[in-house]
Design goal:
Helix content: 55-70%
Radius of gyration: 22 Å
Shape: globular
Distance between the termini: 49 Å
Number of domains: 1
Structural class: mainly alpha
Largest sheet: 2 strands, antiparallel
Number of helices: 18
C-alpha cells in the first residue's frame, strides 16, 4: 500500500521479510521503557502490569472490533463517500454517525467531502463534535455502557450543532472556491504488511482475546492454560502482546495515503486482496492505539509511583475547573491527550462530566488532516464544539455530581 513498505521480498523464495522503518522518535520511546525498567525494578514490575492490562483489557477488544468493521467494509465494498452524496438531505446526521464511530476515519472522510463541495459546513461541525477518536476504544473496552452513552450524547449534540450552524451560516460557509479535487490528500492509513509479523501478532492475540473475555466475565483464565503451571501465563501473554504492538509501531508500521483498499468498483476487484489489506490496517491501527493506551496507563501509574501523589485528590481540590480543563485538552490535536483523559476517568481521577466535555470537544487524529485540508474551517468548527461541550459537561456536573 502506497510507497512506504515495511517488507522486502526475497526474489528466490517470494517470501516477505519485515524491514524496520528506523524512526528515531519511536525508537527513543522504546528505549525509555527499557531504561526505566532497568533503573527501577519496582517501576519495571508496575510497567509490566500496566502493559499487560493495556493489552488484555483494551487491545484485544480493539482488534476484535476493528477486524469486524474493516472486514465488513471490505467484503461488502461499503463506500461512505457515495452514501453522503446519495442522502444529501441527511448529510448532517450521517456525518455525525460517521464521527461517532470509534476511530477517526469517518471524520477525515467528511472533511474531504466538504472541501470537494459535496457536503455542508454544518456536517463538518457535526462530525467533529460527534467524534471521540481512538480514545473511544478505551471506554468501550473498560466501560461499554458508559462508552455507548457518551457516543449517543456526542451524536445528538453533533447533529443539533450541525443543523444550527447550517441554519446560521449556510452550507458553503468558509468553503474555498479555488479548491482542486486533485489537491485533496487521501487519509493516512497505518498498516503492517509483513505476513511474518501477522503470524507473530495472531500468536499473542488469540490467547489474549480468550484471557480478556475471561477477565471481563470475572472468570479464572489461568485454568485454561494449566500446561504452563510454572509460568504466569496471563502476564506473559499480556506483556508479550503489548511489546509486540509497541515494537510493530516503533519499527514496522508504515504510514501511507489510503487508496481504495476497502472499496473498489473496478471489475478487477479482489476480495481476498482487500481482506488482506483490511487485516494489515487492523494490525497497524491496533498497534497505534495500544501505544497510546499503554502511555496513558503508564503516565498515571508511574506518576503515582514516583511522586506519591494521588491524582484523584488533586482534582477534587479544583473540582469545578476539572471539566473545563478536560474540554481545553480536547482542543489539542491527536489522540494521545484524549487517551490520558479517558484513562484518568476510568481510574477515578476525574468525574464523568469531564470525560463528557472532553469527548465532545476533542477531534482525535481527524484534526491533523482537517487542518491540512481546510485549516480555517477546521479551526472554526472545532471552536464551535466548545459551547455544547461546556453546556453538557457543566449541566451533568451541577445536576449529578
Amino acid at each position: 500500500m502506497g510507497s512506504a513498505s515495511v517488507g522486502t521480498k526475497n526474489r528466490s523464495s517470494g517470501k516477505s521479510f519485515p524491514r524496520p522503518n528506523n524512526d528515531p522518535l519511536r525508537l527513543g520511546l522504546f528505549m525509555i521503557l527499557i531504561a526505566v525498567s532497568i533503573v527501577s525494578p519496582e517501576a519495571g514490575s508496575l510497567m509490566a502490569k500496566s502493559l499487560a492490562d493495556a493489552f488484555l483489557q483494551v487491545t484485544v477488544f480493539v482488534a476484535f472490533t476493528l477486524t469486524i468493521f474493516y472486514t465488513l467494509e471490505a467484503w461488502f465494498r461499503i463506500d461512505a463517500k457515495a452514501l453522503l452524496k446519495k442522502y444529501s438531505a441527511w448529510q448532517v446526521p450521517v456525518a455525525g454517525f460517521l464521527g461517532a464511530l470509534p476511530g477517526c476515519g469517518g471524520a477525515v472522510m467528511v472533511i474531504t467531502q466538504y472541501v470537494r463541495g459535496g457536503i455542508s459546513f454544518g456536517s463538518v461541525v457535526s462530525v467533529l463534535t460527534a467524534t471521540m477518536g481512538d480514545a473511544a476504544f478505551l471506554l468501550l473496552a473498560q466501560e461499554p455502557l458508559t462508552g455507548v452513552g457518551i457516543f449517543a450524547v456526542g451524536l445528538s449534540v453533533g447533529i443539533v450543532s450541525g443543523y444550527v450552524v447550517d441554519f446560521i451560516h449556510g452550507a458553503d460557509f468558509l468553503r474555498s472556491k479555488t479548491n482542486n479535487v486533485n489537491q485533496v490528500q487521501a487519509p493516512v492509513s497505518r498498516t503492517v504488511n509483513s505476513k511474518f509479523l501477522h503470524v507473530m501478532w495472531w500468536f499473542f492475540f488469540i490467547p489474549g482475546l480468550v484471557i480478556g473475555i475471561s477477565l471481563a466475565f470475572q472468570a479464572n483464565p489461568a485454568a485454561l492454560f494449566v500446561v504452563f503451571e510454572n509460568v504466569d501465563t496471563i502476564l506473559f501473554v499480556g506483556v508479550g502482546g503489548a511489546l509486540v504492538c509497541i515494537s510493530f509501531w516503533c519499527f514496522f508500521t508504515s504510514n501511507a495515503a489510503e487508496s481504495s483498499t476497502s472499496y473498489n468498483p473496478q471489475p478487477s476487484f479482489s476480495r481476498v486482496k482487500t481482506l488482506n489489506n483490511a487485516i494489515s490496517r487492523m494490525i497497524g491501527d491496533t498497534c497505534f492505539i495500544t501505544v497510546w493506551v499503554a502511555i496513558a496507563f503508564l503516565i498515571y501509574e508511574l506518576g503515582v509511583f514516583f511522586t506519591g501523589l494521588d491524582l484523584r485528590n488533586l482534582f477534587q481540590i479544583w473540582a469545578p475547573l476539572v471539566p473545563l480543563i478536560a474540554i481545553l485538552i480536547g482542543f489539542i490535536p491527536g489522540c494521545g491527550p484524549q487517551f490520558l483523559v479517558a484513562a484518568m476517568y476510568l481510574n477515578g481521577a476525574i468525574p464523568l462530566s469531564a470525560e463528557l466535555g472532553n469527548a465532545i470537544s476533542n477531534d482525535g487524529d481527524a484534526l491533523f488532516p482537517a487542518l491540512a485540508i481546510a485549516p480555517k474551517a477546521a479551526v472554526i468548527a472545532t471552536l464551535y464544539s466548545a459551547a455544547p461541550a461546556v453546556i453538557v459537561a457543566y449541566s451533568w456536573y451541577w445536576l449529578f455530581e
